[in-house]
Amino acid sequence: MTITRRGFLGMAGVAGVAGLAAGAGLAGCAPAPEKATPVAATGDEAVSGAAYEAAATYTCDICICGAGNSGLSAAVEAAQQGLGVVVLEKHGGTGGGGIGTEGVFAVNSQMQQDANISIKPAEIISCEMEYSHNRANGLKWLDLVQASGENIAWLQECGVNFTGVVDDYHGGMFQTFHWFGENRAHDDFSPAMTETARSLGVEFLLNCPAVELVMDNGAVAGVWAQKLNGDYVLVKARAVVLATGGFANNDEYLQEGGFSDTTNVKRFLYGYDGDGVRMALEAGGASNVPRMSGLMQLTVQGAPGGEYGTFGRGDGLVVAGHNPCAIWINEDGQRFCAESAGIENWMADMIPSLAHHKLYSIYDAKIFKDAYDGMIMPRIDWAATQEELAQRIEENPYDDFFSADTLEELAKKASDALGLDYDTVIASINGYNEMCEAGDDAHFGKPKEYLQKIANPPYYFCYMPQACMVTFGGIRTNRKMEVVTKAGEAIPGLYSAGVDSADLWPNIYTINVPGGTNANNINSGRFASKNAAVYIGSGKAGAVSSEGDTSPSVAEPTWKMPEGSLKDGTYTDTQFGMFSDIAVTVTVAGGKIAEIKQENELETTYVGQAAMEQTLIPAVIEAQTVAIDTVAGATRTSQGFLTAVAKCCEQAVA
């Protein structure tokens, strides 16, 4: 089987997105509090539909909701336009979900010119428009392509580091990918853009998510935000940019976007709840949620493969399950599509499952081994994969993976455990094998080269839930990035940028254009702020003022060291982090935590591992407690690590 770029991404893991949930700085380990009961509004606060009592008030020209790649770009551009800027960020550090991005798309940059790379803008746009059956916004593609080269120069002026390498990112259709350094945007984009923004007077309010827009006679007048301690902050602003990172963690919006099994959908990022979409809709904006796309795939539950499958690194169980030679059946036991759907675009693998509640994959030992051999970067070697597989079959913690030496036994095991109709399941398998023998998929027309009879025991039956890393789209905007109503009228002062409103890839992410998503993040952020500056005009304040309790939003400890002295010794515990189990060893000497070590397979070296080794371990030893802040962007890694340390301490006291 020929391995295309899309196949490589699906089988080997996506390096450009594998670290998206990591960051720098400290974030609170306590969850955000529930909304308080609104109080009666007075004076300027009466413009809000549901005003709260403000512990602090900030006055500025523009408020940016979100400090990811699009929010940082919007903040820097707004400040350069002479606006007073406040940025509200849900987490404790800047960078958001974009810190794992490896680079940026551009056409006609100086780097491309130096490398004699020449691409006609129309080639890019026609390719994307054709793939989407002209559902994509062609004018926004035109704006992005035309501005992209200058955007690279602008980023360099802001201190963003590029290696100078421009290529097609592992076999993409165009040489448009401008590479950051080894540690991606985490080191080469986010810190530089944050520093540039702060040097221009941008005020960042971290651990302080936006919760509601302030409206005045149909126009935006500011934003309400909430600190971790429950206090409300009022940001008065004439313009607001929503750049909150999408809604991968919001079941309601995923259902509206076509997901059929949100009870079991696997997530990759943390805290992307559709805040921007919700606020835009509450303000009268139109929804683009039904046209959503994103980084989505079929995955497996638990090891081997982890909760996130090939969003991390390749694993045989995940890859075999969506191998084009497997059989897919739905919750009724019926085969429902050609399983080769994702050969040219691994984003298309999951699309057929959206019309069904469940997807089960059936394959044999040969398909499993072929899938493993086809991976560019397998997580572990074949022998270790077999060991993990045997353990998974024996323990079967989710009651969703089965193996047998005959197809009849396999169908019986799975049907009994999952409530499927055995006769339908075995008929689907036998009917498929008959079509393979005939070399003709008479039902769905799968190409002959993928019609491989399931005939090499042992046989496998695996439930493959839908997984979502990040969503594209949700808020309808015009060419100026203004949020518009269903009638197409702009809501004065309200803008959206980044994946919250990305409508360049309706219904499916094409992955044709290397670096396109990040380029849209940056360009839409800049466009939003440029147009907001025109909207505000000469009445801009050019600065930020504040009053009230402007102290930082910090987490309150939620765990205390158990009562009693720690007994000397060595204690171990294992918890799941972002991508894998984290095994922690705590050494107690003289009644105190003297040493902490951790081992993991898949936590990112430059974020997850760095968070533990460089920040969390020294902080716990110094404080002699795990009641410390998590590392922003490495929240799940931090929580897994700190929980494991806490369990070790509890063992030491017991």
TrEMBL record:
Q: According to the UniProt entry, where is the signal peptide?
A: 1-27
The GO terms describing molecular function are: FMN binding; steroid dehydrogenase activity, acting on the CH-CH group of donors
Say which species the protein is native to.
Answer: Adlercreutzia mucosicola
Q: Which cofactor does it need?
A: FAD; FMN
Residue stretches making up the FMN-binding domain: 577-652
| InterPro entries recorded | FAD-dep_OxRdtase_2_FAD-bd, FAD-oxidoreductase_2, FAD/NAD-bd_sf, FMN-bd, Succ_DH/fumarate_Rdtase_cat_sf, TAT_signal
Per its UniProt record, what SUPFAM superfamilies does this chain match?
FAD/NAD(P)-binding domain, Succinate dehydrogenase/fumarate reductase flavoprotein, catalytic domain
The catalysed reaction is: dihydrourocanate + A = urocanate + AH2
The identity of this protein, by name, is Urocanate reductase
* Alphabetized SMART domains for the sequence: FMN_bind (SM00900)
Judging by the UniProt lineage, the source's domain of life is Bacteria
Stated family:
Belongs to the FAD-dependent oxidoreductase 2 family. FRD/SDH subfamily.
For this UniProt record, give its keywords in alphabetical order, as a comma-separated list: FAD, Flavoprotein, Oxidoreductase, Signal
The EC number(s) given in the record are 1.3.99.33
This entry carries the following GO cellular component terms, namely: membrane
Q: Which residues form a coiled coil?
A: none
